[in-house]
Structure formats: structure tokens, C-alpha cells
Write a structure and sequence with these properties.
single chain, alpha/beta, TIM Barrel, four-stranded mixed β-sheet, 9 helices
């Protein structure tokens, strides 16, 4: 009988019994907004769909996704300005030329910019090691145009090859968001022996699987955010925790959905719970680098 295949990136360590530590100012629950700014190829490549297209090229779904860059992202920024929230902006590097000013606006409002590959029209899992290394290098090169050097990475479509963590660590990235296996930062093993930090990024509190895959309504998704915060606050006295809230401007940035997101975040901000650290993925990585605890 053959053994079950294993990824070799981390061992099983249950969340109970790990070393305790706190976030800055003694806070216990780190919450960050991961906002996906994405571009797609017209008439080709991958892309989420609102409904099946009847024709080729698929104007309906392309334009629906492009709404996020033209309208939804700016609606988000106005909302987050009012709520005094910085985000981790997960940016396809092709945004810089396809949507001039969008990545710069994220940068200028104080968002952390993390790399989200070049475009969500392609996925790393389909690439050879050489192709993937070249794509990562080109992504970083394109960010140089706005004087940004991303430290974090989210793969387009949360797709990885067998080499992705190794290539990211070798390219100088500090953390990756692809692995939704824990509520705390953990360490992924890499072939160099150095490793790379994995920061929780939710596949549940994420508007694509919620609204597109499961066909849930916006109020349900907004309620999921509040429910997750409530549950994690009930646990965080026993252990420090992280909640990443994954958003796409072409989904929750639609007018009828943004209202529900606004209400949920407003209630959480107005509650002003002293245990919550509203932060970015990069700030979480910085805190872990200072050694408050050893990632499992």
C-alpha cells in the first residue's frame, strides 16, 4: 500500500498548547482586510463568472469584473477612509499599466501592497518552475514603476505549483497567503532551509466562494464576518488569532452589496473592542519577525 502523499511544507501541530503571545498593545485578535485588485484578459484566460456567457468573446463577465477596478475599488476606498481602515491591497502587477492610478491610490492611502501575481487570467499551478520564476520576477519588476517592493504574495486563484513557496522565499518574499490551514501564522518549510511565513487568509470569509460559488446573499456574507469575529474573540484569551477578510471590488464593491459590508464593518469599528488589532498582513509578518512566538 502506498503512503499518502504529503506536501512537506509543515507538520501537524494542533492549535492548543502552542506558545502564547500577544499582538501589539496586548491585543489578541488581528483582523485585516485583503482586497483583491485584479485584471483579466479579454476573451481569453481564467476569470470568475456571474452567469454563463452565450457568446465569445465574453463581454458580460469581463465587464462585470472590470467594474471592480472602475467603480468598486473606489467605493471601497471611500468606505475604508471613513472607517479609518488600512488594507492589504492584493494587486495584480498588470493593474499598474491597465488601470493607471489604482495601485498608486492604494499606496498613497497607506495600504500595504502585496503581490497577487501579474493577472488573474493565469494560475501558477499550470507553470513549469522556469515559467513561474520568470513570472514572479516580472511581477516584482512591474511594481518598480510605482516604487513598491511587495513583501507578501497571494497566488492568482490561490494556485501553487510544487515549487511556489521555494521560489517566493528565494525571490525575497517574507510571507505567503495561499495556505488556509490555521488561525495563526505558521512557518512553511522551503528547500533552502530558511522557510517562509504563512499568514491566514480565509477561504470562508471570502466573497468569491461565498457569493459566487455558494450563491449566498451579501447580508449573509456580512453576517459571516461578524460571526467569525465574535467566535474568535471568545477564543482569543486562550491564544492569539488572525482573521483575514477577503474582498473583491467587483463582488462586494457592487452597490447593493457594499451597503451590507459597510454596516458590518461600522458595527465592529464602533464597538471598539480593545482585543482587536486592525492591521495588515505585512504588519503581522513584522510582529512575528520580532519574535513574540515561534510559528508552528
Amino acid at each position: 500500500m502506498t503512503e499518502l502523499a504529503h506536501h512537506g511544507r509543515y507538520e501537524y501541530v494542533p492549535i492548543i498548547g502552542r506558545p502564547d503571545y500577544s499582538w501589539p498593545e496586548g491585543r489578541r485578535l488581528a483582523v485585516y482586510l485583503g482586497v483583491n485588485h485584479e485584471v483579466f484578459a479579454f476573451g481569453d484566460g481564467m476569470g470568475a463568472t456571474l452567469a454563463p456567457s452565450k457568446t465569445d468573446p465574453d463581454v458580460m463577465n469581463f465587464a462585470w469584473r472590470d467594474y471592480g477596478n472602475r467603480v468598486g475599488a473606489w467605493r471601497f476606498m471611500e468606505m475604508f477612509d471613513r472607517l479609518e481602515l488600512k488594507t492589504t491591497a492584493l494587486v495584480n502587477s498588470a493593474i499598474i499599466t491597465r488601470c493607471p492610478g489604482l495601485a498608486e491610490a492604494c499606496r498613497d492611502r497607506g495600504d500595504e501592497i502585496a503581490a497577487h501575481g501579474r493577472t488573474n487570467a493565469q494560475a501558477e499551478g499550470h507553470m513549469s518552475e522556469g515559467e513561474e520564476r520568470e513570472m514572479i520576477a516580472r511581477t516584482l519588476q512591474e511594481f518598480e514603476a510605482i516604487d513598491v517592493r511587495p513583501r507578501g504574495w497571494l497566488g492568482p486563484w490561490i494556485s501553487e505549483s510544487e515549487n511556489t513557496p521555494d521560489l517566493l522565499e528565494e525571490a525575497g518574499f517574507d510571507y505567503v497567503l495561499d495556505w488556509a490551514h490555521d488561525d495563526q501564522p505558521t512557518r512553511l518549510d522551503t528547500r533552502s532551509g530558511k522557510g517562509i511565513l504563512s499568514i491566514p487568509y480565509s477561504q470562508e470569509i471570502n466573497d468569491i466562494p461565498s457569493i459566487i460559488a455558494r450563491h449566498q446573499e451579501a447580508d449573509t456574507f456580512a453576517g459571516m464576518i461578524e460571526d467569525a469575529v465574535e467566535q474568535l474573540l471568545g477564543e482569543c484569551d486562550r491564544r492569539p488569532l488572525v482573521l483575514g477578510i477577503a474582498l473583491h471590488p467587483y463582488i462586494m464593491g457592487q452597490a447593493h452589496r457594499a451597503l451590507h459590508l459597510d454596516r458590518a464593518l461600522t458595527r465592529l469599528r464602533e464597538a471598539a473592542d480593545s482585543r482587536i488589532w486592525w492591521t495588515t498582513a505585512g504588519a503581522i509578518a513584522d510582529h512575528m519577525a520580532r519574535g513574540p512566538g515561534n510559528p508552528a
